[in-house]
Protein backbone atom coordinates (compact mmCIF):
# COMPACT_ATOMS: atom_id res chain seq x y z
CA UNK A 1 0.00 0.00 0.00
CA UNK A 2 1.51 3.34 -1.01
CA UNK A 3 1.41 6.35 1.27
CA UNK A 4 0.45 9.80 -0.01
CA UNK A 5 2.92 12.67 -0.05
CA UNK A 6 1.20 14.36 2.88
CA UNK A 7 0.84 11.05 4.70
CA UNK A 8 4.62 10.67 4.52
CA UNK A 9 5.14 14.28 5.59
CA UNK A 10 2.83 13.73 8.56
CA UNK A 11 4.76 10.60 9.57
CA UNK A 12 8.06 12.51 9.49
CA UNK A 13 6.62 15.45 11.45
CA UNK A 14 5.21 13.09 14.08
CA UNK A 15 8.58 11.36 14.41
CA UNK A 16 10.43 14.67 14.81
CA UNK A 17 8.01 15.95 17.44
CA UNK A 18 8.20 12.68 19.36
CA UNK A 19 12.00 12.82 19.29
CA UNK A 20 11.90 16.41 20.53
CA UNK A 21 9.47 15.50 23.30
CA UNK A 22 11.87 12.80 24.49
CA UNK A 23 15.13 14.74 24.09
CA UNK A 24 13.75 18.13 25.16
CA UNK A 25 16.46 19.89 23.20
CA UNK A 26 14.33 22.92 22.35
CA UNK A 27 12.55 23.20 25.68
CA UNK A 28 15.45 22.49 28.02
CA UNK A 29 18.47 23.74 26.05
CA UNK A 30 17.68 26.26 23.33
CA UNK A 31 14.75 28.03 24.96
CA UNK A 32 16.61 28.83 28.20
CA UNK A 33 19.54 30.21 26.16
CA UNK A 34 17.13 32.44 24.24
CA UNK A 35 15.59 33.62 27.50
CA UNK A 36 19.04 34.35 28.95
CA UNK A 37 19.92 36.39 25.85
CA UNK A 38 16.77 38.50 26.33
CA UNK A 39 17.65 38.96 30.01
CA UNK A 40 21.25 39.98 29.29
CA UNK A 41 20.44 42.69 26.76
CA UNK A 42 18.86 45.08 29.32
CA UNK A 43 21.89 44.54 31.55
CA UNK A 44 24.19 45.46 28.66
CA UNK A 45 22.32 48.53 27.37
CA UNK A 46 20.85 49.80 30.62
CA UNK A 47 17.42 49.66 32.14
CA UNK A 48 16.03 52.89 30.73
CA UNK A 49 12.37 51.99 30.02
CA UNK A 50 11.85 54.02 26.80
CA UNK A 51 15.09 52.64 25.32
CA UNK A 52 14.13 49.07 26.19
CA UNK A 53 10.66 49.59 24.75
CA UNK A 54 12.20 50.93 21.53
CA UNK A 55 14.62 48.02 21.04
CA UNK A 56 12.48 45.23 22.56
CA UNK A 57 10.71 44.03 19.43
CA UNK A 58 13.94 44.05 17.39
CA UNK A 59 15.80 42.14 20.10
CA UNK A 60 13.00 39.58 20.30
CA UNK A 61 13.19 38.88 16.58
CA UNK A 62 17.00 38.71 16.52
CA UNK A 63 16.96 36.14 19.33
CA UNK A 64 14.14 34.18 17.64
CA UNK A 65 16.04 34.18 14.31
CA UNK A 66 19.40 33.10 15.72
CA UNK A 67 18.18 30.44 18.10
CA UNK A 68 15.28 29.41 15.89
CA UNK A 69 17.45 28.60 12.90
CA UNK A 70 19.81 26.75 15.19
CA UNK A 71 16.90 24.58 16.35
CA UNK A 72 15.97 23.59 12.81
CA UNK A 73 19.55 23.06 11.59
CA UNK A 74 20.42 20.86 14.54
CA UNK A 75 17.32 18.77 14.12
CA UNK A 76 17.88 18.13 10.42
CA UNK A 77 21.65 17.92 10.23
CA UNK A 78 22.37 15.66 13.20
CA UNK A 79 21.15 12.29 11.91
CA UNK A 80 23.72 9.51 11.52
CA UNK A 81 24.43 7.79 8.20
CA UNK A 82 22.63 4.64 9.34
CA UNK A 83 19.55 6.68 10.28
CA UNK A 84 19.61 8.38 6.89
CA UNK A 85 19.96 4.96 5.22
CA UNK A 86 16.94 3.65 7.11
CA UNK A 87 14.82 6.61 6.03
CA UNK A 88 16.01 6.31 2.42
CA UNK A 89 15.07 2.64 2.31
CA UNK A 90 11.52 3.31 3.44
CA UNK A 91 11.13 5.03 0.06
CA UNK A 92 9.90 8.27 1.64
CA UNK A 93 9.85 11.01 -0.96
CA UNK A 94 12.68 13.36 0.12
CA UNK A 95 10.39 16.33 -0.57
CA UNK A 96 7.78 14.88 1.81
CA UNK A 97 10.53 14.37 4.37
CA UNK A 98 11.54 18.03 3.96
CA UNK A 99 7.95 19.23 4.37
CA UNK A 100 7.42 17.05 7.45
CA UNK A 101 10.64 18.14 9.14
CA UNK A 102 9.99 21.81 8.34
CA UNK A 103 6.45 21.53 9.71
CA UNK A 104 7.69 20.00 12.97
CA UNK A 105 10.37 22.70 13.31
CA UNK A 106 7.82 25.42 12.59
CA UNK A 107 5.49 24.11 15.26
CA UNK A 108 8.31 24.07 17.80
CA UNK A 109 9.32 27.57 16.75
CA UNK A 110 5.78 28.86 17.35
CA UNK A 111 6.06 27.60 20.93
CA UNK A 112 9.54 29.13 21.12
CA UNK A 113 8.20 32.50 19.87
CA UNK A 114 5.24 32.53 22.25
CA UNK A 115 7.33 31.82 25.35
CA UNK A 116 10.04 34.32 24.42
CA UNK A 117 7.33 36.79 23.36
CA UNK A 118 5.74 36.72 26.80
CA UNK A 119 9.18 37.20 28.36
CA UNK A 120 9.93 40.13 26.03
CA UNK A 121 6.64 41.84 26.91
CA UNK A 122 7.44 41.44 30.60
CA UNK A 123 11.08 42.55 30.40
CA UNK A 124 10.86 45.31 27.80
CA UNK A 125 7.44 46.71 28.62
CA UNK A 126 6.23 46.25 25.05
CA UNK A 127 2.74 47.44 24.17
CA UNK A 128 1.30 45.77 21.10
CA UNK A 129 -1.79 46.97 19.31
CA UNK A 130 -3.54 44.97 16.60
CA UNK A 131 -3.25 41.67 18.44
CA UNK A 132 -5.25 39.88 15.76
CA UNK A 133 -2.24 40.08 13.44
CA UNK A 134 0.26 38.78 15.96
CA UNK A 135 -0.55 35.05 15.51
CA UNK A 136 -0.34 35.49 11.73
CA UNK A 137 3.09 37.12 11.95
CA UNK A 138 4.38 34.56 14.46
CA UNK A 139 3.15 31.67 12.29
CA UNK A 140 4.65 33.08 9.08
CA UNK A 141 8.03 33.79 10.67
CA UNK A 142 8.08 30.37 12.36
CA UNK A 143 7.26 28.70 9.03
CA UNK A 144 9.96 30.69 7.25
CA UNK A 145 12.57 29.85 9.89
CA UNK A 146 11.48 26.21 9.96
CA UNK A 147 11.88 25.96 6.20
CA UNK A 148 15.17 27.85 6.20
CA UNK A 149 16.66 25.80 9.01
CA UNK A 150 15.55 22.50 7.48
CA UNK A 151 17.02 23.51 4.13
CA UNK A 152 20.31 24.53 5.78
CA UNK A 153 20.29 21.30 7.82
CA UNK A 154 19.85 19.31 4.62
CA UNK A 155 22.93 20.98 3.18
CA UNK A 156 24.92 20.27 6.35
CA UNK A 157 23.84 16.63 6.17
CA UNK A 158 25.53 16.21 2.78
CA UNK A 159 28.92 16.98 4.22
CA UNK A 160 30.00 17.86 7.75
CA UNK A 161 32.39 20.50 6.36
CA UNK A 162 29.35 22.23 4.84
CA UNK A 163 28.38 23.23 8.40
CA UNK A 164 30.72 26.17 7.99
CA UNK A 165 28.52 27.41 5.15
CA UNK A 166 25.36 27.52 7.23
CA UNK A 167 25.71 31.17 8.34
CA UNK A 168 26.31 32.16 4.71
CA UNK A 169 23.10 30.39 3.66
CA UNK A 170 21.02 31.46 6.61
CA UNK A 171 22.06 35.12 6.89
CA UNK A 172 20.83 36.45 3.52
CA UNK A 173 17.58 34.51 3.67
CA UNK A 174 16.77 35.49 7.23
CA UNK A 175 17.26 39.21 6.54
CA UNK A 176 13.91 39.64 4.70
CA UNK A 177 12.21 37.62 7.45
CA UNK A 178 13.77 39.80 10.13
CA UNK A 179 12.90 43.05 8.35
CA UNK A 180 9.31 42.01 7.62
CA UNK A 181 8.75 40.69 11.14
CA UNK A 182 10.17 43.78 12.83
CA UNK A 183 8.40 46.21 10.50
CA UNK A 184 5.10 44.38 10.93
CA UNK A 185 5.24 44.87 14.68
CA UNK A 186 6.36 48.47 14.24
CA UNK A 187 3.44 49.03 11.86
CA UNK A 188 1.04 47.57 14.41
CA UNK A 189 2.47 49.81 17.11
CA UNK A 190 2.09 52.94 14.97
CA UNK A 191 -1.29 51.88 13.57
CA UNK A 192 -0.02 51.66 9.96
CA UNK A 193 -1.01 49.06 7.38
CA UNK A 194 1.24 46.00 7.54
CA UNK A 195 -0.05 44.21 4.46
CA UNK A 196 3.16 44.89 2.52
CA UNK A 197 5.21 43.24 5.24
CA UNK A 198 2.80 40.31 5.51
CA UNK A 199 3.05 39.87 1.76
CA UNK A 200 6.82 39.92 2.03
CA UNK A 201 6.70 37.17 4.68
CA UNK A 202 4.40 35.09 2.49
CA UNK A 203 6.72 35.48 -0.51
CA UNK A 204 9.80 34.48 1.52
CA UNK A 205 7.95 31.44 2.91
CA UNK A 206 6.89 30.39 -0.60
CA UNK A 207 10.39 30.84 -2.03
CA UNK A 208 11.89 28.78 0.79
CA UNK A 209 9.23 26.08 0.46
CA UNK A 210 9.80 25.76 -3.29
CA UNK A 211 13.59 25.78 -2.89
CA UNK A 212 13.39 23.15 -0.15
CA UNK A 213 11.05 20.82 -2.04
CA UNK A 214 13.03 21.06 -5.27
CA UNK A 215 16.41 20.55 -3.62
CA UNK A 216 15.32 17.77 -1.25
CA UNK A 217 16.02 14.87 -3.55
CA UNK A 218 19.42 16.08 -4.85
CA UNK A 219 20.47 16.81 -1.27
CA UNK A 220 19.43 13.36 -0.05
CA UNK A 221 21.24 11.67 -2.93
CA UNK A 222 24.40 13.66 -2.21
CA UNK A 223 24.34 12.94 1.49
CA UNK B 1 41.52 5.20 -7.35
CA UNK B 2 38.24 3.25 -7.68
CA UNK B 3 37.07 1.17 -4.71
CA UNK B 4 35.48 -1.40 -7.03
CA UNK B 5 36.40 -2.43 -10.58
CA UNK B 6 35.72 -5.45 -12.81
CA UNK B 7 32.60 -6.31 -10.87
CA UNK B 8 30.23 -8.44 -12.91
CA UNK B 9 27.44 -9.84 -10.78
CA UNK B 10 23.90 -10.94 -11.58
CA UNK B 11 21.62 -12.25 -8.86
CA UNK B 12 18.32 -13.74 -9.95
CA UNK B 13 15.03 -14.23 -8.10
CA UNK B 14 15.14 -17.12 -5.66
CA UNK B 15 18.91 -16.97 -5.44
CA UNK B 16 21.25 -16.33 -2.53
CA UNK B 17 24.85 -15.21 -2.84
CA UNK B 18 27.69 -14.89 -0.35
CA UNK B 19 30.50 -12.34 -0.70
CA UNK B 20 33.79 -12.76 1.12
CA UNK B 21 36.85 -10.60 1.28
CA UNK B 22 39.36 -8.94 3.56
CA UNK B 23 38.61 -5.67 5.36
CA UNK B 24 38.60 -2.79 2.89
CA UNK B 25 38.17 -5.07 -0.11
CA UNK B 26 35.01 -3.20 -1.21
CA UNK B 27 32.28 -5.56 0.07
CA UNK B 28 30.29 -2.92 1.91
CA UNK B 29 30.63 -0.48 -0.97
CA UNK B 30 29.23 -3.09 -3.35
CA UNK B 31 26.26 -3.73 -1.05
CA UNK B 32 25.58 0.00 -0.71
CA UNK B 33 25.68 0.38 -4.49
CA UNK B 34 23.17 -2.42 -4.92
CA UNK B 35 21.01 -0.91 -2.17
CA UNK B 36 21.06 2.38 -4.17
CA UNK B 37 22.51 4.10 -1.11
CA UNK B 38 25.66 4.99 -3.08
CA UNK B 39 25.96 5.95 -6.71
CA UNK B 40 28.49 4.30 -9.04
CA UNK B 41 31.05 6.68 -10.53
CA UNK B 42 31.40 4.46 -13.62
CA UNK B 43 29.91 1.31 -15.10
CA UNK B 44 26.30 0.18 -15.24
CA UNK B 45 24.00 -1.77 -12.99
CA UNK B 46 20.36 -2.15 -12.16
CA UNK B 47 18.19 -3.42 -9.36
CA UNK B 48 14.59 -4.51 -10.08
CA UNK B 49 15.15 -3.05 -13.55
CA UNK B 50 16.02 0.43 -12.27
CA UNK B 51 19.38 1.89 -13.15
CA UNK B 52 21.63 2.30 -10.09
CA UNK B 53 22.53 5.83 -11.19
CA UNK B 54 18.98 6.86 -12.07
CA UNK B 55 17.50 9.82 -10.19
CA UNK B 56 14.37 7.69 -9.76
CA UNK B 57 16.18 4.88 -7.99
CA UNK B 58 14.48 5.81 -4.71
CA UNK B 59 11.27 4.17 -5.96
CA UNK B 60 12.77 0.66 -5.66
CA UNK B 61 14.13 1.20 -2.17
CA UNK B 62 11.10 -0.13 -0.30
CA UNK B 63 11.73 -3.47 -2.05
CA UNK B 64 15.27 -3.61 -0.63
CA UNK B 65 16.04 -4.82 2.87
CA UNK B 66 19.50 -3.64 3.89
CA UNK B 67 21.18 -4.28 7.21
CA UNK B 68 24.49 -2.50 7.63
CA UNK B 69 27.04 -2.52 10.42
CA UNK B 70 25.22 -0.06 12.67
CA UNK B 71 21.47 -0.16 13.33
CA UNK B 72 19.81 3.12 12.34
CA UNK B 73 17.24 3.38 15.11
CA UNK B 74 16.43 6.73 16.68
CA UNK B 75 17.76 6.49 20.23
CA UNK B 76 14.95 8.54 21.80
CA UNK B 77 12.20 6.33 20.37
CA UNK B 78 11.09 2.91 21.55
CA UNK B 79 11.49 -0.12 19.31
CA UNK B 80 7.74 -0.03 18.63
CA UNK B 81 7.92 3.65 17.66
CA UNK B 82 10.97 3.11 15.46
CA UNK B 83 9.35 0.25 13.60
CA UNK B 84 6.06 2.14 13.59
CA UNK B 85 7.79 4.97 11.75
CA UNK B 86 8.98 2.51 9.09
CA UNK B 87 5.50 0.93 8.89
CA UNK B 88 3.72 4.29 8.55
CA UNK B 89 6.20 5.47 5.92
CA UNK B 90 5.65 2.34 3.84
CA UNK B 91 1.92 1.92 4.36
CA UNK B 92 2.31 -1.27 6.37
CA UNK B 93 -0.39 -2.25 8.83
CA UNK B 94 0.59 -1.21 12.39
CA UNK B 95 -0.32 -4.61 13.81
CA UNK B 96 2.66 -6.10 12.04
CA UNK B 97 5.04 -3.99 14.12
CA UNK B 98 4.27 -5.84 17.33
CA UNK B 99 4.03 -9.22 15.60
CA UNK B 100 7.45 -8.76 13.97
CA UNK B 101 9.13 -7.68 17.19
CA UNK B 102 7.61 -10.62 19.05
CA UNK B 103 8.74 -13.06 16.39
CA UNK B 104 12.39 -12.06 16.86
CA UNK B 105 12.19 -12.47 20.63
CA UNK B 106 11.73 -8.79 21.50
CA UNK B 107 8.20 -9.11 22.87
CA UNK B 108 9.38 -7.95 26.30
CA UNK B 109 11.26 -4.93 24.97
CA UNK B 110 8.74 -3.47 22.55
CA UNK B 111 8.33 -0.27 24.56
CA UNK B 112 11.99 0.08 25.49
CA UNK B 113 13.84 3.06 24.06
CA UNK B 114 16.46 2.12 21.48
CA UNK B 115 19.24 3.80 23.48
CA UNK B 116 18.45 1.42 26.35
CA UNK B 117 18.71 -1.68 24.17
CA UNK B 118 21.87 -3.71 23.69
CA UNK B 119 23.53 -3.92 20.30
CA UNK B 120 22.19 -7.44 19.90
CA UNK B 121 18.63 -6.28 20.61
CA UNK B 122 18.95 -3.50 18.06
CA UNK B 123 20.16 -6.04 15.53
CA UNK B 124 17.17 -8.24 16.29
CA UNK B 125 14.92 -5.22 15.76
CA UNK B 126 16.54 -4.86 12.32
CA UNK B 127 15.52 -8.45 11.60
CA UNK B 128 11.99 -7.55 12.73
CA UNK B 129 12.03 -4.69 10.21
CA UNK B 130 12.95 -7.13 7.45
CA UNK B 131 10.20 -9.54 8.53
CA UNK B 132 7.71 -6.69 8.53
CA UNK B 133 8.66 -5.17 5.17
CA UNK B 134 9.25 -8.49 3.34
CA UNK B 135 11.76 -7.08 0.83
CA UNK B 136 12.37 -8.71 -2.52
CA UNK B 137 16.10 -8.21 -2.15
CA UNK B 138 17.89 -8.81 1.13
CA UNK B 139 21.33 -7.27 1.60
CA UNK B 140 23.12 -8.23 4.81
CA UNK B 141 26.49 -6.82 5.77
CA UNK B 142 28.23 -9.18 8.20
CA UNK B 143 24.90 -10.27 9.65
CA UNK B 144 26.29 -12.92 11.99
CA UNK B 145 28.74 -10.71 13.86
CA UNK B 146 28.16 -10.03 17.57
CA UNK B 147 25.05 -12.21 17.76
CA UNK B 148 24.07 -15.03 20.07
CA UNK B 149 23.18 -18.48 18.70
CA UNK B 150 19.41 -17.77 18.56
CA UNK B 151 19.91 -14.55 16.67
CA UNK B 152 22.23 -16.28 14.21
CA UNK B 153 19.43 -18.72 13.49
CA UNK B 154 17.17 -15.74 12.84
CA UNK B 155 19.55 -14.49 10.15
CA UNK B 156 19.54 -17.86 8.46
CA UNK B 157 15.76 -17.97 8.69
CA UNK B 158 15.45 -14.51 7.11
CA UNK B 159 17.58 -15.56 4.16
CA UNK B 160 15.62 -18.80 3.70
CA UNK B 161 12.25 -17.00 3.91
CA UNK B 162 13.30 -14.35 1.38
CA UNK B 163 14.51 -16.93 -1.11
CA UNK B 164 11.40 -19.10 -0.60
CA UNK B 165 9.21 -16.09 -1.39
CA UNK B 166 11.05 -15.73 -4.70
CA UNK B 167 13.31 -12.92 -3.52
CA UNK B 168 17.10 -12.78 -3.56
CA UNK B 169 19.69 -12.42 -0.82
CA UNK B 170 23.28 -11.20 -0.80
CA UNK B 171 25.36 -11.68 2.33
CA UNK B 172 28.73 -10.16 3.06
CA UNK B 173 30.63 -12.10 5.67
CA UNK B 174 33.92 -13.34 7.06
CA UNK B 175 32.27 -16.54 8.25
CA UNK B 176 32.94 -18.83 5.26
CA UNK B 177 31.60 -22.04 6.77
CA UNK B 178 28.26 -20.63 7.91
CA UNK B 179 27.56 -18.61 4.77
CA UNK B 180 28.64 -21.36 2.36
CA UNK B 181 26.10 -23.64 4.03
CA UNK B 182 23.40 -21.01 3.64
CA UNK B 183 23.74 -19.63 0.10
CA UNK B 184 23.66 -20.97 -3.45
CA UNK B 185 27.04 -19.59 -4.53
CA UNK B 186 29.85 -17.45 -3.20
CA UNK B 187 32.29 -14.90 -4.60
CA UNK B 188 35.49 -13.40 -3.30
CA UNK B 189 36.22 -9.68 -3.49
CA UNK B 190 39.86 -8.77 -3.47
CA UNK B 191 41.13 -5.20 -3.88
CA UNK B 192 37.84 -4.19 -5.43
CA UNK B 193 37.69 -7.02 -7.95
CA UNK B 194 35.02 -9.73 -7.85
CA UNK B 195 36.05 -13.34 -8.50
Structure description:
The complex is a heterodimer of chains A (223) and B (195). With 223 residues, chain A is mainly alpha-helical. Chain A has one domain. Chain A is 84% helix and 0% strand. Chain A starts with a helix and ends with a helix. Chain B has 6 helices and 8 strands. In chain B, the strands form 2 sheets. In chain B, strands 4-5-6-1-7-8 form a 6-stranded mixed β-sheet, sandwiched between helices. Chain B has a two-stranded antiparallel sheet with strand order 2-3. The two termini of chain B are 19 Å apart. Chain A binds chain B through residues 1-3, 7-8, 11-12, 14-15, 18-19, 22-23, 80-94, 217, 220-221, and chain B through 35-37, 39, 55, 58-59, 61-62, 64-66, 68-74, 76-77, 81, 85-86, 88-92, 113.
Please indicate the percent range of residues of chain B in DSSP E strands (runs of 2 or more): 15-25%
Structural class of chain B: alpha/beta
Largest sheet of chain B: 6 strands, mixed
Count of helical segments of chain B?
6
Q: What is the H/E string of chain B?
A: EHEEEHHHEHEHEE
Largest sheet of chain A: none
Count of DSSP E strands of chain B? 8
The fourth-level CATH homologous superfamily of chain B is P-loop containing nucleotide triphosphate hydrolases
Overall body shape of chain A: globular
Radius of gyration of chain B from CA coordinates: 16 Å
CATH hierarchy: architecture of chain B: 3-Layer(aba) Sandwich
Report the span from N to C terminus of chain B: 19 Å
Count of separate structural domains of chain A: 1
State Rg of chain A: 18 Å
Write down the CATH topology of chain B. Answer: Rossmann fold
The level of helicity of chain A is over 70%
Number of H- or I-type helical stretches of chain A: 8
Percentage beta strand of chain A = under 5%
Beta strands of chain A, count: 0
Order of helices and strands of chain A: HHHHHHHH
Kindly state the percentage of residues in helix of chain B.
Answer: 25-40%
Amino acid sequence: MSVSFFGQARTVAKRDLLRERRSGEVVWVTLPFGAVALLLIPIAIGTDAPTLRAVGVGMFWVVVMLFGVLVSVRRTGADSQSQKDMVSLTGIDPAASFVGSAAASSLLLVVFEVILGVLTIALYDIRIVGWAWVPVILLLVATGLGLLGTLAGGIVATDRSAAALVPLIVAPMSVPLLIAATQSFEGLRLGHSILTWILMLVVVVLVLAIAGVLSARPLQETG
Amino acid sequence: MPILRDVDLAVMEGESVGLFGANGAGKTTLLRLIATLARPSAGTGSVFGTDLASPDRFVVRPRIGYIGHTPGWYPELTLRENLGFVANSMGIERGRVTASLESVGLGGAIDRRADRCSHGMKRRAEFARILMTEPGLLLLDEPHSALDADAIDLVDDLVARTVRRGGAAILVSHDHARVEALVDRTHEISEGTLR
